[in-house]
Structure formats: C-alpha cells, structure tokens
DNA sequence: AGAAAACGCAACCTTTGGTTGCGCGACAGT
DNA sequence: ACTGTCGCGCAACCAAAGGTTGCGTTTTCT
C-alpha cells in the first residue's frame, strides 16, 4: 500500500463507478447496511463491504454497529470536499477549453482580415 | 437520453488519475507525442501510450501521424461532455447534501421550540 | 549506409474489483 | 434454553487493469 495524500485517497474513492453509485444510494435512501445496499446493486454483499471499507478509509462514510448489523452513513463535510474537488477539475477543464476556443476564433479572424 | 455505454466509457476514461493528469498536460501544453508526454509524467512511454489508447477509444483525444511520430490532441467537444458529466455529479451530491443540511436544521428548530 | 529517435507489440508482474465458501456472534420463535 | 436464521467478517481464489522491461520496425538525420 503506497501511502497516498488525503486528496488522492479521496479521488481514488470517488473515481470508482460502483462507489459513486453506492454514495448515490446512501444519499437518497439514508443510512443502510452492506446487505441492504447490495440488494440495490449488481454485486455481492462482500464487494459492497469492500467498497464501504475504502470509502470509510477515505472518510467519506461512517459505519456504526447496531446489534448484529452495521449501518453506514455518508459524512456530509467530507463528501462536500469531494464534490468540490470534482467541480474544480470540471471548471479547470472548462476554462482551458474556452481559452482554446477563443484562440481558434482569433486565428480565424486574423486569417479572414489581413 | 445519452447512450449509456458511451457515458460509462467516458467516465472510465476520466476516472483514472494518470489520465486526468495526461489531459491536463495536453490542455495546457497543446498537442504532443507519447514520448514527450512521458517526460512530464511519472511513468513510461508505454504506459502513456496505453492511456492514450483508452482516451482515444473514449473519443477524448485524437492522434495523427506525422512522419515517425504520432501527435495527440484533445477533442474539445468530447472533453466538454466529460467536464459537464463531472460537474453534474458534483452538483447532484451538493444538492443532496444541502437537503440533508436543511433537514437537520429543521429538526434542530423543532427541538428548540416545544 | 548507418546510427538514433519514435513507435508498436508481447511477455510479465502487481494491484484491485469481484466472487465463492465458511465460521461466528446476535436475534427470534417455540 | 434450544435451534434456526440473519448479518458480518475473514480467506482463498479469479479476472481485468495499470505499469514495467525487452525487442523489432519504421522514419529521420548526417
């Protein structure tokens, strides 16, 4: 296990499609157990448990024991950090793309008006 | 709605940290070859080539042969789609989180006014 | 013509997402 | 109190993906 920075661990956590779906379900349905979550997902309880472990290590989710079951809930502050990170990348790309677009337009104008 | 497999291929492409870095470099430095890109990245030319292949299959990047070298460039329209997808997920999470926050506040108010 | 640069292909290793199988603690019914 | 069941955790195993090294091929340059 290479020790990653906090940021990279967050990204690694949300990069996985399955984990994003998991987070979606937790967000819309509220806290749930691994078995309950697995019922709404195309993989087994164990796979879900592994994903939950990853998410918990990244701090995105928190599990508490209630008798024989462990209920997992999202940690809003942390997920907010993750959401902002994603939005930031999207924004960076967008600004770069607009710069490219402007450049292309200016070249086009220059070519048409010598 | 948009083609689902297409969407998932896009996500798979941008989910990888290395590929995001690759796109960043291409965006800021303009078109480049696999060897040139590898110089700015912590892995080998072959690894970069594989990533470029994935990105090209996802339509995010386009490679053209110029003599003995292949120069890769970002396809702005496609990357824009990807950026919007990321922003959309971030926004969805954000709205869910705000709903949770509002709910918590209303409970808090109810508890303080019996 | 011959050396060097850039690429493609193939074999291989490691990590990771996913599965099956099993054993153990917690609950519920009788 | 006993027995069956439910939910979990652990371990072995499998397949795909990221990454590396090694080698052969094509293009360029002198």
TrEMBL record, chains A, B:
InterPro entries: ArsR-like_HTH, HTH_ArsR_DNA-bd_dom, TAT_signal, WH-like_DNA-bd_sf, WH_DNA-bd_sf. SUPFAM superfamilies: Winged helix' DNA-binding domain. It comes from the Bacteria. One of its GO terms (molecular function) is DNA-binding transcription factor activity. CDD domains: HTH_ARSR. Residues 1-96 form the HTH arsR-type domain. This is Transcriptional regulator. It comes from Micromonospora costi.
